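Format notes (please read before filing issues)

Several people have asked whether sequences and structure tokens are stored in separate files. They are not. Every record keeps both together, in the order shown below: the sequence lines, then the token lines. Line labels are part of the format and must not be stripped during preprocessing.
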Amino acid sequence: MQEEETKFKEELEKMEYEPLLPIEKKLIGWSLGIGTVLLGVLYWISVTFFEVGQG
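Then the structure lines:
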């Protein structure tokens, strides 16, 4: 197990830094946006249709 971790660390150190491509940035933005909107929709649905009585 220790040997595998050492090999993994060595491989990570060999890798060069690669900046995100513009399309990758767009995909990340769209994913975060859609996720946020869907959380809002699900919250609205739960509050509207599944009200829980107080006490």
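For reference, the curators noted about this record: The chain is about 75% helix and 0% strand. The longest helix spans residues 22-49.
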